[in-house]
Amino acid sequence: MKVIRTISELKQELSTLRNDGKSIGFVPTMGALHQGHASLVKRSVEENDVTAVSVFVNPTQFNDKNDLKNYPRNLQADCELLQSIGADIVFAPEVEEMYPEPDTRTFSFAPLDTVMEGGCRPGHFNGVAQIVSKLFYAVEPDKAYFGEKDFQQLAIIREMVKQLEIPVKIIGCPIVRENDGLALSSRNMLLSDEERQRALTISRSLFASLEYAKSHTLAETKAFVEDAINSTEGLQLEYYQIVDGNTLQEIAEWEDSDYVVGCIALFCGKIRLIDNIKYKEVE
Ligand code: PAF
After folding, report:
1. 37 carries an active-site annotation
2. Contacts with 8 (C-beta within 8 Å, 6 or more apart), sequence order
3. Percentage above 90 pLDDT, the chain
4. Quick one: which of 76, 123, 216, 234 has the fewest CB in 10 Å?
5. What pLDDT digit, counting tens, does each position of 37-62 carry?
6. Model-level pTM greater than 0.90?
């Protein structure tokens, strides 16, 4: 496995492989890797000749300076994990390499980016689009892998490659959970034991709501999850929205869509967590 720091070296390495007819899979990450990331990398290794993984904490997608400062970083542990699961290239640039000048591009993915995370984290998706497009231009992957935990991000990346006409196949991969249900997240390592225990209410209420939804209206189901979160000390709900999985717009009745996803964001102490659950999915 090669660790590469510059775009020019990355392009050179990949163009040789591409000229040899190798297919390239790509997993963009911000490091602090866990088994959720590993599942994306393993899928890429299965489906491509070469797998490149980027590890870069992208400053332009953080609207909260403290969140950026506290974001966990551990390149050595990341590389050990990546090596053990068969990644071929790790691209770990410095900020100056990705942003030699400020990126002034502004994107509009409306209405996908005006709701949920878009409302709570102004500029977040613009920053995600800046870095992911730069990485796609550098790597030119055949396929790129993203986790469904960041459900809105995945929809926006699909829209971005359409708008920018980037020829890459975007693959969404299922959420990976701990045995007790907590969705894996790099931020989980910032939770105290007590906070982690409280955070279990998220997945528990989402899964319980699947059953509840069978005999209740959409509004009642939404309230069911909201009540569970609001009645747990230490959790502060930002939103729970039940949306059409393609447009990300809230729906009023179960019948309004055949792809229905509940998306949640909340603070557990000072740590912001997101999760989601599918009530209905198109085959
Ligand atoms: O999902 C993430 O970890 C980040 O938003 C991404 C896609 C790597 C861009 O920085």
Report:
1. yes
2. none
3. 98
4. 76
5. 999 999 999 999 999 999 999 999 99
6. yes
